Amino acid sequence: MVHPHPETDATWWRGAVIYQVYPRSFADGNGDGTGDIAGIRAHLPYLRDLGVDAIWVTPWYVSPLADGGYDVADYRAIDPAFGTLAEAEALVAEGLELGIRTIIDIVPNHVSDQHAWFQAALAAGPGSPERERFWFRPGKGEHGDEMPTAWVSDFQGSTWTRTTNPDGTPGEWYLHLFAPQQPDLNWSHPDVRAEFEDVLRFWFDRGVAGIRIDSAALLIKDPELPEYTEHPGPGEHPHVDRDELHDVYRAWRSVADSYEGTRVLVGEVWLQDRARFAQYLRPDEMHTAFNFDFMARPWDAKQLRESIDMTLAAHGPVGAPATWVLSNHDVTRPVTRYGRDDSSFAFAAKRFGTPTDLDLGARRARAAALLTAALPGSLYLYQGDELGLPEVEDLPRDLLQDPMHFRSEGVDPGRDGCRVPLPWSGPAAPFGFSPAGAEPTWLPQPASWAGLTVQAQSSDPASMLHLYRDVLARRRAEPSLGDGPMTWLDSDDEVLAFARGDIACVVNLGAEAVDLPEHSDLLLASAPLVAGKLPRDTAVWLRITP
Question: Are the C-beta atoms of 88 and 198 separated by less than 8 Å?
């Protein structure tokens, strides 16, 4: 079904507020304990009232769920656990009626080991055309029992798994930068490029407003499969940020631009080199990419200002808007992270038992909400952050499902703690996530979340939810917010202060209260002022004379 796309604002994406939906944990419509499309559709009015412009839905395709849906077996079919293709089409259409666009996730680096292509490759055997779509290689050593390379997986451990021949003897090895259940595709093969361009058309035909591109810098591999070098030059890493990638995204941009309305490409691009990062945002490639540097920085004025300056400097030459995000389905939630002695984020540093001060974390997360919403560009909000949910760090270990936990031999707690089902209403689990009489939620919810439900916070003007609603409403109402210029204001070293037209955002990250700059009106505050001063870990929006 082709759904007409009524969107007429060609630059909507430059300053949009985009809400990330992790379907498995958003809302359960059919009572099986797992979130689904029916649950999302039922809560679209909540998202409208929150003030978002679009939703980004993480993978909802047919999947064995070896990696939370990022192991896709069929890009044109919805996993029955989430619903049907007809329901997905209805979600897109109903969202548009409420002014909410839909962005979907595409995972081009790899597929599920249950994908028809990979199953055909296993059956066809060495040297077959079917195997050329992947990275099958003989092993090293006399008997081929050594991996073709010593590359290290993003999920820790090796990047190669050996196959077994039909006669039971050891066979070739195949490459997987992530889990063994996620074989990497060979993007030098024309079938792979044609297939994904067709997948884009399939979903654009159904009215989606954009594509979020998972692991966007990893698709292309050096065909010689060399070992890592200590200091590879730009574009010379064997499987990260290779120059040939840009041809892929130029082709994708041509597909997107062939549709009415602006259909956007949003990249997940983890790169430290900001100049290389910006190349993905040239006018004929992606529209935007996630700003992971800002998200990973600690609660420190110097660090955050450095990240803001670096981000805006990188985006300026290519004319792309920045993106701002505090967390996602992979990252420790802000309320927990900002309460730690080390409030930065790094996957390698995650450990069980790391202490946190949740009251401090919540205070800083409230201030961070005002900070990120005031910065120029688009804003991403991960489901539950508007409720101030903490990371659930005491899940029973026998219920953990994230491969990052298992591949680390239990050292890394994994990402399940930020994926616990949302609390909507009521005094006890499942807190309105599922209908009455439903199966237990796929991950258990803490009893302490009774005070954090949407229902409980809706009647509390001091709640995180009220703050986010106020922030997003004011952001939408003020012409100088969203996309556009910003100017730093004079301030103490532990204060971030900048102007967006006649709006000033001031954030005190120091230990002592500070005076506010001259202003005509206090528009929003993350916490009450103290004797007219801005206390520690507090942010305000002020009306000023520009």
Answer: no
Query: In sequence order, what are the residues at sequence separation of 6 or more whose Cβ sits closer than 8 angstroms to the Cβ of residue 155?
Result: 178, 179, 403, 404, 407
Q: Are strands 264-267 and 210-213 parallel, antiparallel or unpaired?
A: parallel
Residues 525 and 541: their CA atoms lie apart, in Å, by: 7
Q: Count Cβ neighbours within 10 Å for each residue of 254-288 and write b for 16 or more, e otherwise.
A: ebbeebebbbbbbbbbbbeeeebbbbbbbeebbbb
Residues 6+ apart with CB under 8 A from 327: 295, 333, 334, 337, 382, 385, 418
Contact 501, 525 (CB under 8 A): no
CB contact at 8 A, 389 and 417 = no
pLDDT tens, N- to C-terminus, the chain (546 residues): 333 344 568 999 999 999 999 999 999 999 999 999 999 999 999 999 999 999 999 999 999 988 888 999 999 999 999 999 999 999 999 999 999 999 999 999 999 999 999 999 999 999 999 999 999 999 999 999 999 999 988 767 889 999 998 888 999 999 999 999 999 999 999 999 999 999 999 999 999 999 999 999 999 999 999 999 988 999 999 999 999 999 999 999 999 999 998 999 999 998 888 889 999 999 999 999 988 899 999 999 999 999 999 999 999 999 999 999 999 998 999 999 999 999 988 777 788 778 899 999 999 999 999 999 999 999 999 999 999 999 998 888 888 776 676 666 666 777 888 999 999 999 999 999 999 999 999 999 999 999 999 999 999 999 999 999 999 999 999 999 999 999 999 999 999 999 999 999 999 999 999 999 999 999 999 999 999 999 999 999 999 988
Which CA distances in Å does 165 have to 125, 129, 407?
Answer: 8, 17, 25
- Please tell me whether residue 326 adopts helix, strand or coil conformation: coil
d(CA 326, CA 380): 8
How is 208-261 classified by DSSP, letter by letter?
--EEEETTTT-S---TT-PPP-SSPPTT-SSSSS-TTHHHHHHHHHHHHHTSSS
Sign of CA dihedral 257, 263, 268, 274: positive
Got the DSSP string for 255-318? HHHTSSS--EEEE----S-HHHHHHTTSTTS-SEE--HHHHHS-S-HHHHHHHHHHHHHHHGGG
Two structure tokens written together for 55? 């939703």
CA atoms within 13 A on the CB side of 76: 11
For residue 240, which of 281, 164, 184 has the smallest C-alpha distance?
184
Catalogue the active-site residues.
214, 268
Give the separation between CA 65 and CA 273, rounded to whole angstroms. Answer: 32
Say if residues 325 and 307 touch (Cβ distance below 8 Å).
no
The 3-class SS string of 442-492 reads: CCCCCHHHHHHCHHHHHCCCCCHHHHHHHHHHHHHHCCCCCCCCCEECCCC
Residues 6+ apart with CB under 8 A from 309: none
